[in-house]
Design goal:
Its EC number is 3.1.-.-. Belongs to the CRISPR-associated endonuclease Cas1 family. The chain has ten helices and nine strands. The chain is α/β, with parallel strands linked by helices and 330 residues long. It has two domains: 74 residues, Ribosomal Protein L15, Chain: K, domain 2; 233 residues, Four Helix Bundle (Hemerythrin (Met), subunit A), CATH 1.20.120. The protein is globular, with a radius of gyration of 20 Å.
């Protein structure tokens, strides 16, 4: 299994023959086989030379850049290796056809909403009283089928998240001042965690899309735009409740992440390197966590669940099998 490599402010990465040489902050060097790496994350103001970038691109390694505040900046995607003109035409067709587009968009919203509901149900069963929110979300999920355009659908999705986030202070054991989702910029440590870990999910989804013939710029719930991989946003909505939100709850309720891991003077915008390393280690564990797949009859990782979602979409686009978006069954 290939792994992600994380490079922090004081770390350096260079090419050594057909391997990657990682120099840690204390000067220790480690040579890493290039075929063991799937993607690289750079955090901070790193200098990356074109020789290294060319080498990574030749080996189909995706590179993600985060700034000083650990905000996602951009991704460097190698030249597409798996391309299909036929599939591209099908993707565009399902975007331009209003009925086909909204059919897919509804699947994303229903899947995300049902996974959110299952998170609430999980904690409700462990003594956190979120039953009223569960009932409200059930009502909103029933409203999804009534939507006949993307704007209405996005409105329902927004209301589901608003209700969901209103329960986080019940779920989280630490004292926080989190009351509502604020993105640009985040205004407290919970919002910073959401932004940071959601961006990790986004880049992971992008990496899995890249391993298929799907074009990541053509999406259905989120509007395709310039310089963004909007299909990653669509599919990430499905997996954020399972991967991002459950990770945040676990990190905070186990006191692995506390206020001390943030810069209070910067309104909690900046995670310490220690805090970031804790999160990334736990994020990697979560991606490698496995579940018995009810249809495949074998253990699959959370990361591979994302790839399977891409394959399901491809079958739908080719009209081989109707797309039924992922919903947690456990």
């Amino acid at each position: 299994m290939k792994n992600s490599l994380y490079i922090y402010q004081n770390g350096e990465l260079s090419r050594k023959d057909n391997t990657l040489r990682f120099t840690g902050e204390e000067g220790g060097k480690k040579d890493i086989p290039v075929n063991s790496i799937s993607e690289i994350y750079f955090f901070g103001e790193d200098t990356v030379n074109t020789k290294l970038i060319t080498f990574l691109a030749q080996n189909n390694i995706m590179v993600h850049f985060f700034n000083y505040y650990d905000f996602y900046v951009s991704s460097l995607v190698p030249r597409e290796m798996k391309v299909s003109g036929k599939l591209l035409v099908k993707q565009v067709e399902h975007y331009t056809d209003k009925e086909k587009r909204i059919e897919l968009a509804k699947e994303f919203v229903k899947s995300a909403g049902n996974n959110i509901y299952r998170n609430l149900r999980y904690y409700n069963g462990r003594g956190k009283d979120v039953k009223d929110a569960m009932n409200e979300i059930t009502y909103l999920l029933n409203e999804v089928e009534k939507c006949d355009n993307i704007q209405q659908l996005m409105g329902v999705e927004g209301n589901i998240h608003k209700i969901y986030y209103s329960q986080w202070n019940v779920i989280i054991d630490q004292e926080t001042d989190f009351t509502t989702r604020v993105k640009r910029p985040p205004d407290n440590m919970v919002n910073t965690l959401i932004s940071y870990i959601n961006s990790l999910v986004y880049t992971t989804v992008l990496g899995e899309i890249y391993k298929t013939q799907l074009n990541p710029t053509i999406s259905y719930l989120h509007e395709p735009g310039v310089s963004r991989f909007s299909l990653s946003l669509d599919i990430a909505e499905i997996f954020k409740p399972l991967i991002a939100d459950r990770l945040i709850f676990s990190l905070l309720n186990k006191n692995q992440i506390k206020e001390k891991h943030f810069s209070k003077g910067l309104d909690y915008l900046h995670l310490s390197e220690q805090g970031s390393k804790i999160i990334l280690a736990e994020y990697d564990k979560r991606l490698k966590q496995t579940i018995m797949h009810k249809e495949l009859g074998r253990e699959v990782s959370y990361r591979y669940l994302i790839r399977l979602e891409c394959y399901k979409m491809i079958k739908h686009l080719y009209e081989e099998k109707k797309y039924d978006a992922f919903v947690m069954w456990w």
